[in-house]
Amino acid sequence: MASLRERLEQNELDHGPVRVGLVGAGQMGTGLISQIEKMAGIKVVAVADVLPGRSKDAFIESSVKSEDVHETDDVDAATKLVQEGQRVATVSSDFLVEIDALDVIVEATGVPEVGARVCQAAIKAGKHIVNMNVEADATIGYYFASMAKEAGVVYSLAAGDEPGSIKELYDFADALGFEIITIGKGKNNPLDRSATPDHVAEKAKAQNMSAKMLASFVDGTKTMVEMTSIGNATGFAPEVRGAYGPNAKVDDLPKTFVPKAAGGIFDNPGAVDYAVGVAPGVFIIITTDQPKIINDLNYLGLLGHGNYWALYRPYHLANLETPITIASVALDQRETLLTKLPPVAETLTIAKRDLKSGEQIDGLGGYTAYGMIDRADVAREGNLLPLGLAVGATLVRDVPLGTAISYDDVELKDDQLIVQLRREQDELLSNLAKA
C-alpha cells in the first residue's frame, strides 16, 4: 500500500493537487498554509479573512510569492486563477464555497458563529469540510455530521488538536479489541477561572497570540470544549461537572485515571477527563481480561499499574497536523472524528464574575463567562446554556459568580445562525428519542 505522500503525488499526477480553501488567516491558519507548502500533492489555493490584507499576508508569510497571490471577490475570476495554479485572497468566507475548483474547505476562525456559517455553507455547496473550530463542533457538531451524511460529503474535526489526537489512540486500541477505560488530555496552563485578556495580555504578546485565545486556555474553557467534542465522538462523558483534572505525571496515569476499586478517581469506566502535568500530551487507559495479552503487555514494558495500561502520546501538533485530515477526507472520504451518535457532553456557560441584568456575554476567553463540561443529560434537565450560544446573549437577571447560566437567564441573539442550528439539532435529538 502506498504511503500518504505517494498517494498525494499520484493523485496530483492523475487529477491535480488537492485544492484547499481556508477560512481564518490567524496563527492557526497561517501555520496550516506554511505546513502544506512543504507537502506534495496538496495546496491552499484560496484564503478568506475578515481583516483586509490578512489573507494575502498569510500566504506571503508561508513563503508563497506575492505575485502569485491575487485579491478578488469575483467568483469566476477566482475559479480561473485557481485553475491556473494561482492563489486567491479575499475577505468573504461565503465567497470561498462558490469556487468550484476547491476540494476541501477548512474552518479555522475559532469563532462559533462564523464556524456555523462556514460549515453549513460548505456542506450545502457539496464540499467536504474540515472544522478546526472545536467551539462550534461542541455546540452543533451532531447537526453537521447528520447534514453532511445526508449531503454525501465529509464533515470532520482535525487531526492535531487534542480531540483528533485522542481519537487516533482510541481507534488504535478499539480496533485491537482492548477495553478503553478513560480518555484524556493534558492541560497546558495552570487553571485560573478568573483569567481575562487583560490578565494574560503581556504573555500573549510575547507568544504572538490573541489575548482572548490565551485567556480561554488559562480559564479552562478550551480544555472543556475539547473534552466535549472528543467525549461526544466516543460516547465518553465527564463523571462530574468540570471533570476531576488531577495533578499527574505520566507515570501516574494508569494509577489515577482508573476506577476507585483499582485505586483511581472514577466510579465507573467510560469517562473523559484531563490531567495537569502531562501537557501537551494526550492519553487513553486500556485494560484486557485475556491472560496472555496481560503477560505480553507487561513483558513489553507498557506503562501500567495492575490490570490497567496507559497509551500516551507526548505531543499534538495542532494546525501542523491538520493536512493529514484534509488528505484523508479528499482521498478516502474518511473523517478523523465527528459526533455520529447523540451527544453525551455539553460545555456550560459559567459566570466569571457577578453579572448584572442587561449585561451582554462576550466571547470565549473574555470577561464575563468561562466554559465547564458536564453531562448532556444534566444540561438538558437544568435548561443550561451551551457556551457556543452565549456570545452576544443579554442577561435578563443577575447571575452570581460561578453559577451555570441557564436559557431562562438570557435573551439569545436569535439572528445568529448557530442559535438556529442548535434548535434544529435539539429537535433532531428529540425526535430520535421519541422514535
List its salient traits.
16 strands, Type Iii Antifreeze Protein Isoform Hplc 12, five-stranded mixed sheet, 16 helices, seven-stranded parallel sheet, 39% helix, globular, Rossmann fold, 435 residues, alpha/beta
Would you give an account of this structure?
It is globular and about 65 Å long. It has three domains: 4-160 and 319-332, Rossmann fold (3-Layer(aba) Sandwich); 162-315, no CATH class; 345-434, Antifreeze-like/N-acetylneuraminic acid synthase C-terminal domain (Type Iii Antifreeze Protein Isoform Hplc 12, Alpha-Beta Complex). It has 435 residues and is of the alpha/beta class. The chain has a seven-stranded parallel beta sheet with strand order 3-4-2-1-5-6-7, sandwiched between helices. Strands 9-8-10-12-11 form a five-stranded mixed beta sheet. The model has no long low-confidence stretch (mean pLDDT 97). Helix 6 packs parallel to helix 7 (134-151), helix 7 (134-151) packs across helix 16 (417-434) and helix 8 runs parallel beside helix 11 (221-234). It has helices spanning 4-15, 27-36, 54-61, 75-83, 93-96, 112-124, 134-151, 162-175, 197-206, 211-218, 221-234, 253-256, 291-299, 322-332, 376-381, 417-434; strands at residues 18-23, 42-48, 69-71, 87-90, 104-107, 128-131, 155-157, 179-187, 271-276, 282-287, 304-305, 308-313, 345-351, 369-375, 394-395, 410-411.
